[in-house]
TrEMBL record:
GO terms for cellular component: cytoplasm. GO terms for biological process: coenzyme A biosynthetic process. The lineage of its organism: Bacteria, Pseudomonadati, Pseudomonadota, Alphaproteobacteria, Sphingomonadales. Transmembrane segments: none annotated. The record marks 19 as: Transition state stabilizer. The keyword Nucleotidyltransferase applies. Keywords: ATP-binding, Coenzyme A biosynthesis, Cytoplasm, Magnesium, Nucleotide-binding, Nucleotidyltransferase, Transferase. It holds the Pfam family CTP_transf_like. Residues 7-137 form the Cytidyltransferase-like domain. It catalyses: (R)-4'-phosphopantetheine + ATP + H(+) = 3'-dephospho-CoA + diphosphate. Pathway: Cofactor biosynthesis; coenzyme A biosynthesis; CoA from (R)-pantothenate: step 4/5. The keyword Nucleotidyltransferase applies. This is Phosphopantetheine adenylyltransferase. It comes from Erythrobacter ramosus.
Amino acid sequence: MSRRIGIYPGTFDPITLGHADIIRRGSKLVDHLIIGVTTNPSKNPMFSTDERFRMVEREVANMGLSNVEVVGFNALLVKFAQKQGANVIIRGLRAVADFEYEYQMAGMNQQLDDDIETVFLMADVSLQPIASKLVKEIAVYGGDIARFVSQPVCEEVNARVREQGMKGDY
């Protein structure tokens, strides 16, 4: 029987407790899970690719999962998965809006390589509303993001907001 290698791709800007939940649960479904930290300039990232990579690497190390590795990539997801020898793409879902987009992406990926399966994991109910974009917005407007991200990530986001003078009116 062949090894199951999974890819969990994302921008992770920043990595949230929702991402961590999917990583923890996804790592149980495969023999080896690769967290693919990708670039996506259209999302106007708060952190550089290198900063996000280090952030994800630290968070994964703190989870103590021996079968998880973090790899950066800037390529078509299917090509990255093929290069890594992956046969599973893991995607997290929070809401119906996520499903519509992810369903379309899974269909396109299947057209590109039907040997790679997409597996959807529903976010834990308590974590469903968490989105990186909203975490950043809350931080910019002076809100407390501590219940959405780990303490080190919270500190990094708040430091970046201060550093870039992004505080909004509140």
